[in-house]
């Protein structure tokens, strides 16, 4: 009975997410989809997976995301709908995992909150932009890591802790923007126990070590591969402020289009 109810609610999130993102499935490649995927020599190369994991090229070290692009290229070449479908599926799975995380935290309305996350406009760029697959992939592993950690915290089974750490590593290999996960784990511990125990700090330490290592790796790749030792915006404060306002206007215009 419980399993059937869970499956029905999970399927409903999946179906509603696909219904909302149906227009995206008819979209094509945009912006940096071209240099990152369709025109990326490592995606096309037979030894592309080895190149991604060795860090031989690219501006960031996201080898798991690159490996997924490599696999997708062999599945549907330059036909964008396949990439879009997988991206929406990953986003829907993340929403389902979020529901489970919120349920572990005993937060009322967990399913509704997850559904709102699935269809909220703030996620349109991530779920509808193919090269942002690094977000949907890393988010899925990020949520898995939190869910496993919470279940470990509730039952003390160290196998779950190891799996949580492994899921976090996969999230970092997808995109290092997830480096704040250890802070989220501490926040969850505080929410459940009303305070941060020494045990919580000790258990989160390996996660902080991974965050520090991958954070420094990203800084190195950005500085030496993307910026190549130069400042991205050497202008003064007013120029940077004007650029920020301009990007806000651009985003507003795109989101409120015809």
Q: How are the secondary structure elements laid out?
A:
Blueprint: H1 2-20, H2 33-38, H3 41-44, H4 48-54, H5 63-76, H6 80-104, H7 110-119, H8 124-128, H9 133-155, H10 158-174, H11 181-193, H12 198-226, H13 237-255
Protein model, in words:
- It is a single chain.
- The protein has 258 residues and is mainly α.
- It has one domain (2-255).
- It is 74% helix and 0% strand.
- The longest helix is centred in the C-terminal third of the chain and has 29 residues, at 198-226.
What is the subunit arrangement here? single chain
Which word captures the global form? Answer: globular
- Please compute the radius of gyration using only Cα atoms: 20 Å
Bin the helical content: over 70%
Structural class: mainly alpha
Mean pLDDT reading: 89
Low-confidence segments, given as residue ranges, are none
Major sheet characteristics: none
Instruction: Compute the number of structural domains.
Output: 1
Beta-sheet strand percentage? under 5%
How many helices in DSSP terms? 13
* Alpha-carbon distance between the two ends: 46 Å
Number of strands: 0
Order of helices and strands: HHHHHHHHHHHHH
Q: Quick summary of this structure?
A:
The protein is an all-alpha fold and 258 residues long.
Attribute tags:
mainly alpha, 13 helices, 258 residues, globular
